[in-house]
Sequence to fold (565 residues):
Amino acid sequence: MTWSIIARDKASGCFGIAVATKFFAAGARVPFVAAGVGAIATQALVNPFYGTNGLRLLREGMAADAVVKTLVATDDGRDHRQIHVMDASGHVAAHTGPACIAWNGHVAGEGFSVAGNMLAGARVLDETAGAYLAGEALPFPRRLITAMLAGEAAGGDKRGKQSAALLIYGEEDWSDLDLRVDDHVEPLAELDRLERVSRERWMPFRRFLPSRRDPVGVTDRSLIEMEIARELCRQGSAMTSLIEIENLKVIFRGDRGRATHAVETVSFELARGVTLGLVGESGCGKSVTALAIMGLLPKGSADVSGYVGFEGNNLLGLTDAAMRDLRGDRLAMIFQEPMTSLNPSYTIGEQIIETLVRHRGFTRAQARTRAIELLRDVRIPSPEQRVDEYPHKLSGGMRQRAMVAIALACDPQLLIADEPTTALDVTIQAQVLDLMRSLKEKTHAAIVLISHDLGVVADICDEVAVMYAGEIVEHAPVDALFRTPQHPYTIGLLASIPRLDRRVETLATIEGALPNMSEIPKGCRFAPRCPFSSEACVSSPPPIVDVGARHWSRCVKAPLEGVQA
Ligand SMILES: Nc1ncnc2c1ncn2[C@@H]1O[C@H](COP(=O)(O)OP(=O)(O)OP(=O)(O)O)[C@@H](O)[C@H]1O
Ligand code: SF4
Ligand SMILES: [Mg+2]
Fold:
């Protein structure tokens, strides 16, 4: 190697090796590591038997220093060799032969060892060791990569083009992580990138593989992919955003030039497989936001601006025909008012069949069979008969379910569900929510769920955006929002939920009403109702303040101290 680090992670017991070298196939001949046995790094292509024999000796229970002594003693080329070894207990031993003139040898500490030659230099070794020691809080693979990057920043390999590898072994015979970069101008930068990719994709995937603890593992691919999408979302990666909304604004033009600013600067992004809850009191702009995304606001009276990115296109720039193609296929919406979307002149069945024929190329016979299945899925009784009925013959709850069936017919990538369960009784409500969950699991759809029911939001959403007077005032992962809300309006909203664990005579409510959306206040829109309002709140719009991972609040007082819902 040019230089390498071997280490044992105290917390997990994993062994890891990171190495950078001039030779190609760095990972193939330099690092040797086995679960529960130990780790060895040797020079590239010089004596691979050090690795294979060394691991055998470690497996037989020999300690690191005895292994080094044994290997060196039986090697006639010992004066030219360099090797470092870690045994199962984390003890380190090393050898640099006297013929390795000006080689830099080893820097070892508790549970780690860095070794390198003159092509790297002593400073590279010291910086690598220093960064490893300083990186105790990092996840183990990141800690090793960070150490190597520090070595690289201190000069790295003077010859330029090299290879690099990172191997981590935990409890299993196979590696937890095996990343190799060959023949690359920036091998460590590339290794760093690969480590990030594997953290986002391989790590969540690996949890589902058969293991000693779970010999069967999880074989449901959709579950695995959903978990990967979630992980990406958690790590804030923009790579997988299915939909990106930036500065969405909707102004309704009314009589005598009156303008209603229904939605202002709404921005969020959503990864596949993630459910976002959109909450806020009546009239705050939830449905208008949804309709603007779907291209369903009346062109004559609604000015819609901003950016709605979906699979790389700005939906706001698409023609009506292109939007019609997307709706019912990759985009679907369950409307707050069932009769808005059900066509009274066609039977329920016709409306589903039309969607399947148009977007999925089904024959009419196939589409009819599928329509009956979908109606059965949403628990419509006697679907064989109901399929031929007109919407007005169905009860409100049944219409709502028919609409869910139409929306789910083509397995949309993005589903916006606007109060999808309001008209339904509790049992049917639970079934509809289950259907949405299974859509997510089956197709990794992203879902925006608009709901007044914070219990439902807590139950099925991953993230929540709280809207007030046309703006998102707080956005957070669901747990953080309910545990530590950071906007006074959210706190008020959560305090309005009836609590089963507390006897309340009257429900806490937020005093006052939404501002008139034709005369938007200059400062914080919530100021007239906010118990914490001060001069700074009314003079200019409050800033967006980051208060945690993927958690922000539009409030001058954020972060709020000691707040607990
Ligand atoms: N077609 C329209 N023309 C003019 N104003 C409209 C129109 N549609 C909605 N608005 C106004 O836009 C604002 C936001 O309404 P929206 O329907 O989005 O509220 P919401 O948050 O969905 O409320 P709810 O919880 O009651 O469904 C309201 O002030 C409403 O009066
Ligand atoms: S900016 Fe001021 S008025 Fe607005 S929510 Fe925060 S504390 Fe209340
Ligand atoms: Mg609404």
Remarks:
- The first helix runs from residue 26 to 29.
- Residues 488, 524, 526-527, 530, 532-533, 537, 542, 555-557 surround iron/sulfur cluster (ligand 2) (CB under 6 Å).
- The chain has a mean pLDDT of 85.
- The chain is about 35% helix and 25% strand.
